[in-house]
């Protein structure tokens, strides 16, 4: 019989973002850290011994915002704003069978694990509507890959076109007909189809459930309020893209007569269970509300730059004590799933906002966001994010002989500003190797590759018409949104000195 104990000996341990790396042994029982101490830590004789000499051990990184459906669409676009990405949706997310939902998510999990990430908050978009069957396949893909996830179905009861005042009217007639078919079904039908998913938590140790009303403007107020009620009744997370783009900020003002955050607060949605993805176009009052209500932010600096959404004012969030997690966003908008890069960009992007060094995000803050901050967003703030007794043994092992660490000057600076995942050797989740010697232990990558590539060939054939029509739509949507940008908003988040877009 295998022992429930594992002891890791000889490693240099960075226990959390504010710690100093020190030589420590780690004793694990049934997936949980039970003791840590100087080399020679007593352990039961039957414990499995893992030698970690010349390796740095740090808490598994946690991705606070990703999309499992996005992997099939990695690198499909360039010069896509958020609105152009949404326009491409019927093409790049089209023709997905149940098996594709599993495979695309497993591809997401595989990339994250290989790059040192042990848990994620996955907002999965099933087209045309989320189903219990589809969301269970998503959850199973994470479990089978050996990873942890909080899984949230993305939901809407309005199409993107219905959500932007004046957009449909600005389209040529042929395109108006196409977008009319994209209107989602009623939210009650959507929610009733998800009951089985919400009621049956199949693997509560690895999988948490949440709800993701995708973007507030794509949801009626009644829908949003209902999501808030379900979140409170079941004590599960809520996650939404809030203030991601200037188009959203302006549309919010037109629709609600207030900022989006102030409107959501009126509906009672802003709570400690609520994570706002991006949160770029928020004003001072909005941030005060988040702080007062204990809501959290999932910061996605890579995606924010790739989609031209601007740079979130993370320092103003941290100054208010708002919990900030860090994410990559989906591969359809952030392309890679590299949390080391996300930390680097969280630091670097704050440093181009202005000259006051006191307002820059520090490497400790970036690492905290990628570990404990994200853990809170996932609803696992007490179990994950640090290496200490009582927490899950989700551990990344980096090779200190790798060039990234020669010489080893400052552990946290080096982890955030220099490490890119190339020094990674092993990854443990619950004290079990999910990656060993740079290979996934539970995913057959050649097989996964073959399955994904076969599916992608089929999808390319079957979405050809949608590609054609969404490319036509993109021209109309792009120019409409650019015109919208001439309306002033009272917050400015681009590196461009004014809101004049030309
Ligand atoms: Zn997203």
TrEMBL record:
InterPro entries, per database record: Amidohydro-rel (IPR006680), Metal-dep_hydrolase_composite (IPR011059), Metal_Hydrolase (IPR032466), MTA/SAH_deaminase (IPR050287)
Domain of life: Bacteria
GO molecular function: hydrolase activity, acting on carbon-nitrogen (but not peptide) bonds
Record bears the keyword Hydrolase: yes
Entry keyword set: Coiled coil, Hydrolase
SUPFAM superfamilies per the UniProt record, alphabetical: Composite domain of metallo-dependent hydrolases, Metallo-dependent hydrolases
Residue ranges annotated for the Amidohydrolase-related domain, each copy included: 57-432
Stretches of the chain forming a coiled coil according to its record: 438-465
UniProt cross-references to PANTHER family, sorted A to Z: AMIDOHYDROLASE-RELATED DOMAIN-CONTAINING PROTEIN, AMINOHYDROLASE SSNA-RELATED
Family: Belongs to the metallo-dependent hydrolases superfamily. ATZ/TRZ family.
Protein name: 5-methylthioadenosine/S-adenosylhomocysteine deaminase
Organism: Alcaligenes pakistanensis
